[in-house]
Structure formats: C-alpha cells, structure tokens
Design goal:
Order of helices and strands: HHHHHHHHHHHHHHHHEEHHHHHHHHHHH
Radius of gyration: 32 Å
Protein name: Transmembrane protein
Number of strands: 2
Distance between the termini: 45 Å
Organism: Brassica campestris (Field mustard)
Transmembrane segments: 444-465, 471-491
InterPro entries: TMEM214
Strand content: under 5%
Helix content: 55-70%
Region (Disordered): 1-23
Shape: elongated
Number of helices: 27
C-alpha cells in the first residue's frame, strides 16, 4: 500500500473562506489585520513572483538560506501595507479550528503554488534552521523573549509568518527534526507559547498527519502528565489539537497505520504509549478521561502496528510496562487493559516470553492473571504462538517450564504468597498440555507417540543388524535417549 499523505494545499479544503469569518466580530483589531492581509495578498502579481523566484534561483543557487531570506523579503515588501498583528493576543484569542487556516487560506492559489514549488527546490537540510529562526523571530513579540537578530534588512514578521507556514506544510519534517530544540530552549517554554507551538504542529499535520502525531506525542503529551504546571485551559488546547489533527483527515487511520515509524522511531514510542494507557484508565476519572477514551483505540492501534524495523524491540518494552500495570495497583480498569496488551505482545513476538521469565517473580500477581488469560483464550492465540516456526513453540515451552521450576521451588519453601505460585502452576500445566497437542488442535497421545517410536525402532534395528551389526549397542543407546525425549514431551 502506498503512503497516503494529507493535502498541504490550503485551498483544497478551505476554498472560498471569508476572512471576516475567521474571527469573532468583537475581535475588531485582529479582524482588521486579517482582512488587510487578505486584501493585500490578493493584489500580488503571480507573474512578478515567478520572475523574482527565477532570478533568485539563478543568482543565489549556491546559497539556499539566502534564497529563502530573499523570498521573505519579497513577501515583506508585497505585504508592507498589512495592518499590524497583535501576535500574542491573536494566538490567545483565536479559536484553534480557525487559527490553523491563517495565513495560507488568505494567499491566492497561484501565488501559493509558485512559492510551494520554489520551496521544494531548496535542499531540505536548509529548512529546519529556517523553521527555528522564523519561529524565534515571531516569538520575540512575547514578553520576556530575547530578541532575535534580523538576518536581512526589510524583514516583516507577517511575511515570515506566511513563509514559515508554507515551509511547515510543504516540508513537515523541517519541524519534526527540531522538536528537541523546541522542548529545551527557554524561548519555547511556558503556557503562553503553547498556542503558537500548536499552530506550527497544525501546519505540519495539514501537510503530513504522521508528522503532526509524531510532534504531538513528543512535545505536547508530556505536558499533560505535568498537569500541575499547566492550566486546564492549556490541557484542553493540547487535547483539542490532537482531536483536530485526527478528525480533519477522513483517512487518518489508514495514514497512521501505513507509517507507524518515522526517523527510525515509533510514532508512539512505548514510553508514550504507557502514558496514554495511564491517562485513559486513571485511578480517578478526571475531566479529560472521556476525551482520551475517544482517541485511545486509534492511538493503541498505531502504537502496536507492526513494522520490520522497530516492532520486536518495541513489543518487548510494551510487554514490560503492561505486565507491571497488569498487577492492578488498585485500578482494575488499567489492569484489564494491560493484560490485553500483554497478551497481544507475547502472541505477536514470542521473545516476550524470555522477557517474562526475567520479570516473572517480581510481577507474580500479574503473571497469574496473564497465564489464566492465556489458558482461557488458548484457541484464540495458539495459532499465532505455534504456527510461525518450531523454534517459537520451543521458546514458549521453555518459558513455561522455567515458570514451573520457579513455582515448585517456592511452593516447597511454603512462603506467604505460595498460593499465587500454586495458581500459576495450574495454568502452566494446562498450557503445557495444550502445547503437546500442537497448533492444529489434534492431540498426539502418549500411546500414539510410543507406537510411532517403536515402529521406527524396529525398522532401524533391522537395518543395523543387516548392514552393521557391530553398531547395534550404540543404536540401542540412541533409542533409549529418543524414548526418554518422547516421554518428556508427552507427559509434561
């Protein structure tokens, strides 16, 4: 299946937007600036822009950063009559659903497309630096932010705002590659910067939904966990942004499951998935719980989606946290969900059984619940566990035998929680019996096993006596070992 992308063209879904509809009527100052931008942009001459872009490409082909700065200068001159934007208030007052359409929905299609084509000719490695510089410049309007040195003479923040939006929609990874800097730099810290950061992510998400989710998970989801530092309004804005990213693309599920990995990393890493599980199934139901419940099923699918690069290691990490959560910790809802995740992890990657062996004793209560779940749902999971290869079946069987050894050792000692080991051992015995039947569901009985072995022995002995009688003693010893192995397999 080919990669499905969101449409970076703002006109495709936003045609004929009336600029006066982008703000509530009482926001007269912002409304005047928006209308001024729309009216001024409409006067831009596409042929003049085409000539300018061609000249820039010819004269500064060796200096891509200089090219993009000249384009910002050009837009600055063309938009010099635009009324002043009150940046901080605009981002605070704007409804998010309307904010993402500004400013590109106000730029004529022909002008936008020519600019997009030009940006596509620039070396990608130039663009992340442009994103950081442009966003730094715009944020200098916020109180307490250190002013950014202007790199060209006639710089317009409105022009920078327009070109930044174009870059983010055209090359969304120009944002994803600078996310660590957005997390760490003081310029981007604080609730007052949140609307602008979400606007940036929204532009990237319009161009590529996976880039939007990748950014949200890494830079915004952690802020929800730190909810004591952020107001309920900020948490609402963070959740609203993801809801909007997902709902704005009717093919969101297909897009995300088609590309669960970016830059060699999961869109939703195991640690982030654990945060989502805890937020969706909290010990105490909060205001945001229902909203997480609504988006969780899709995010869970993305977190568990298979791929050839990261799945094996990711499933081990997911199994580790799910086993710990399956212990309950006084929260039956999270325990139930964690057991389901753990079951899926071990059935999709049997190497999780090796991880389970390491964690078994320290997560005994969860292990008891998980073993019982495996027994109860064996018919649903046995095919996956046993059909891949014979080595997978041996891995499972070896782990269960190891569990039994731990159980028997502890039961013999008569420790306080030996009853849990007894419960676990009952499930282990049942699983071993089921394993002896194989994945097809037909049990190979001990009697059948012995008959097959005896027939093989008779045929083999006859051949040895005929061809090499001096090897008969060695052959008998080998037969004894084979019978002993059949006995262990048939009577676990």
């Amino acid at each position: 299946m080919g990669m499905i992308k969101s449409n970076p063209n703002p006109k495709a879904e936003e045609a004929n937007i009336d600029p006066s509809d982008l703000l509530d009527e009482e926001k007269e100052t912002h409304k005047a600036a928006i209308l001024s931008l729309s009216e001024t942009a409409e006067k831009m001459d596409p042929s003049s822009l085409a000539t300018f872009l061609e000249k820039v490409s010819d004269e500064d082909w060796y200096h891509p950063l200089k090219q993009i700065l000249k384009v910002i200068d050009y837009y600055g001159i063309q938009l010099s009559q635009v009324s002043s934007f009150h940046w901080v208030n605009m981002f605070d007052d704007y409804p998010l659903s309307k904010l993402i359409h500004v400013p590109l929905s106000l730029i004529p299609m022909s002008v936008y497309e020519q600019s997009l084509d030009f940006i596509n000719t620039l070396p990608f490695e130039t663009l992340p630096a442009v994103v950081l510089w442009a966003s730094d410049l715009i944020l200098t309007e916020w109180p307490g932010v250190v002013k950014v040195e202007q790199l060209n003479s006639d710089l317009s923040k409105v022009a920078t705002f327009v070109v930044l939006a174009m870059v983010l929609r055209t090359k969304p990874d120009a944002l994803t590659l600078v996310l660590p800097k957005l997390r760490d730099r003081p310029t981007y810290q604080g609730q007052d910067k949140l609307p602008f950061i979400i606007w940036m992510m929204a532009q990237a998400s319009q161009g590529d939904l996976c880039a939007g989710l990748y950014s949200w998970v890494r830079n915004l989801l952690p802020l929800v966990v730190k909810n004591k530092s952020y107001s309920s309004q900020s948490i609402d804005l963070i959740l609203q942004s993801l809801e909007m990213f997902l709902s704005s693309n009717p093919e969101a599920r297909a897009v995300l499951l088609n590309e669960p990995v970016r830059h060699g990393e999961r869109l939703i890493p195991p640690r982030s998935f654990e945060i989502l599980v805890r937020l969706t199934f909290p010990a105490r139901v909060g205001e945001a719980t229902e909203r997480f419940e609504a988006i969780y099923p899709l995010l869970k699918e993305v977190a568990l989606a298979p791929d050839t690069i990261t799945s094996a290691n990711a499933l081990k990490q997911i199994f580790t946290f799910s086993l710990k959560l399956a212990g309950g910790q006084g929260n039956p809802d999270v325990a139930k969900e964690a057991i389901e995740i753990a079951i899926r992890s071990v059935t999709e990657n049997v190497d999780c059984f090796k991880q389970w062996d390491i964690l078994y004793k320290e997560n005994l209560e969860a292990s008891v619940a998980l073993l019982k779940k495996l027994v109860d749902e064996w018919e649903d999971h046995s095919f996956k566990l046993l059909s891949s290869s014979s080595s997978d079946a041996l891995t499972v069987k070896h782990a269960i035998y190891r569990f039994r050894m731990k159980n028997e050792k502890t039961i013999t000692k008569g420790v306080a929680n030996s009853f849990l080991y007894e419960e676990a051992d009952k499930s282990c015995k049942l699983i071993l019996r089921k394993l002896s039947r194989g994945s097809g569901g037909r049990k190979i009985t001990p009697c059948t096993t012995m008959v097959i072995a005896a027939a093989a022995a008779v045929a083999g002995a006859a051949l040895v006596l005929q061809e090499a009688p001096h090897l008969l003693v060695s052959f008998i010893l080998i037969l004894i070992l084979i019978f002993f192995s059949f006995f262990l397999v048939s009577f676990p």
